Amino acid sequence: PASPLILAIESSCDETAAAVVDGSGRLLADVVASQIDFHARFGGVVPEIASRKHIEAVCGVCDECLDVASAAAGRPVRWADLDAVAVTYAPGLVGALVVGVAFAKGAAWALDVPLIGVNHLEGHLYANKIGDDAFAPPAVVSLVSGGNTLLVHMRGWGDYATLGATIDDAVGEAFDKVAKALGLGYPGGPVISRMAAQGDPDAIPFPRAMLHSGDLRFSLSGLKTAVVTYVNQERAAGRALNVPDIAASFQQAVVDVQVAKARRALEETGAPTFCLGGGVAANPVLRAAYEDLCAQMGVRLVMPPLASCGDNAGMIALVALDRYRASRLMSLDADAQAHA
Ligand code: KG4
């Protein structure tokens, strides 16, 4: 049909998510069930738990998604009304991906509709459309999450080149590990940014790794070690930790490097637009720093709404609509893949 209804499923990490998009690109529903509480006590995502929780959640999340879509559409959106089923097939925790992929295959087969496989990272690029309908490439995109840190040159829809990536930890991972060292729990990003708001970003001179590397690569593990070493030294000396200052100084070290590399990427590519994706893109200090950078450089800044920075199926549905139109489908034989 000219105006298809597509259900998209996302299960690459610790969110079970489903969304429905219509032919105009409107998201009729965008439902996320987070498992974070089940992982928090372990200080990070436990892959085996993630898989099991996806299995428990996926039917309910899809049913709820269809209910929400029905309410938004003002008419029933039932399984039988779907024209395609889409799913994230890579990259991510393979045992988690498998749940969404198997479920989507079963649904597509039972409904006799096409199956569409979507790359999770491409989903994060498309999430910028959720905040701004007019968003279009060319653009430089910074993808910063718990598993990824990279700069992408988005030359067109479906035409991407990686400009540089982390050589060790991801930015979100660094937030999570620093939070763990400070005893702040998991996930680290939100709590560190809340603490940092009360602290002095210039209090402790943590390293800005790769700032002068002359390329667009990142390294986060040295910064994480520097924070852990500092914390251990302060504790050994019997001094009370100033957690807000540590959080603010760590966060500023991250932001300074992110902004410097973004500037370089924009200069190298001449792209007129800069945009973001991934859980760390919700960080308020990072967002404010990009506002300043883009204002200075005369570059258009597009940021996903806070709720669409982290993992969601809305962004997967938007990619799926383009795939559907281009008849780029996935075979029922295809498998989940840990790497893109
Ligand atoms: O994209 P996402 O939901 O999925 C994964 O890649 O797992 O990103 C989650 C990551 C976590 O590492 C979390 O600590 C980080 O995003 N994060 C933040 C903030 N909110 C979430 N990092 C910095 N500042 C935030 N406000």
UniProtKB/TrEMBL annotation:
* Localization of this protein: Cytoplasm
Residue spans crossing the bilayer: none
Sites where the protein binds substrate: 143-147, 176, 189, 283
Ligand binding (Fe cation)? 120, 124, 311
Family statement drawn from the similarity comment of this UniProt entry = Belongs to the KAE1 / TsaD family.
Q: What does this protein do?
A: Required for the formation of a threonylcarbamoyl group on adenosine at position 37 (t(6)A37) in tRNAs that read codons beginning with adenine. Is involved in the transfer of the threonylcarbamoyl moiety of threonylcarbamoyl-AMP (TC-AMP) to the N6 group of A37, together with TsaE and TsaB. TsaD likely plays a direct catalytic role in this reaction.
Name of protein = tRNA N6-adenosine threonylcarbamoyltransferase
Record organism: Adlercreutzia faecimuris
Q: Which gene encodes it?
A: tsaD
Q: Which residues of the full protein are shown?
A: 480 to 819 of 825
